[in-house]
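Researcher: Here's a chain I'd like modeled. Treat it as a single chain, no partners, no ligands.
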Amino acid sequence: MDYFGTDLATAVRQWWSETFLAEVEKKFPGASLAVVLLRSDVAHDWRDPGAADSVLLELRHGDGDTDQLVANIHHKLHFTLRTGLDSIHARRNPHLIEAGDFPHGGAVSHRGFFGGVSGLVEESDAWLAQQVIDQLVTIRAGIADSAVAASLAGAPGWSYLPNEIPPA
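Model: Modeled as a single isolated chain. C-alpha cells:
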C-alpha cells in the first residue's frame, strides 16, 4: 500500500527484520508464527479477511506450518471484523460466535487497524499484533507529518494533499 510515496508493507517488513525480529526470537525462542495486518483504507468482508485487496501485509517466521497459522488468523479475524471486539472476547460472548470463527485470542482492533497473530499463547499473539500495529502507526505518522508540513509550506506539488480536492 502506497502512502504518500512510501510502501507501508515494505517499511514494516524492514522494521520487523532489522529491529524487532531479534526481540521476538529472544522472547519466544524456536516459535513459528504468522502476522496479518489489514489495510485501513478498504471495507473488509468478515467472511474473507484474507482477500487480496484487504491484506496490507503478512509476516511469517519459523519452520512450522505458517500457512495454517495464517488460516487461524483469518478465522480469528472473522469475529473481530464482524463484532469490533478482539477475538479473545469470543469465548466470553458465545452468542456472538458464527460458523468459521476461531474463538481464540490474537486478532485485534488497535489504533484504527485490524490485525492478528497466531503461533504463540493467546495473550502473546495479541501483544505481538499490537506491537506491529504500533510500529505501522509510527511509520504512517512520520510520513503524514512530512506531507502535511510540505502542504502547509506550499512546496511544489503540495498545494493540497493528494486525496483532497484542490480549491477552485
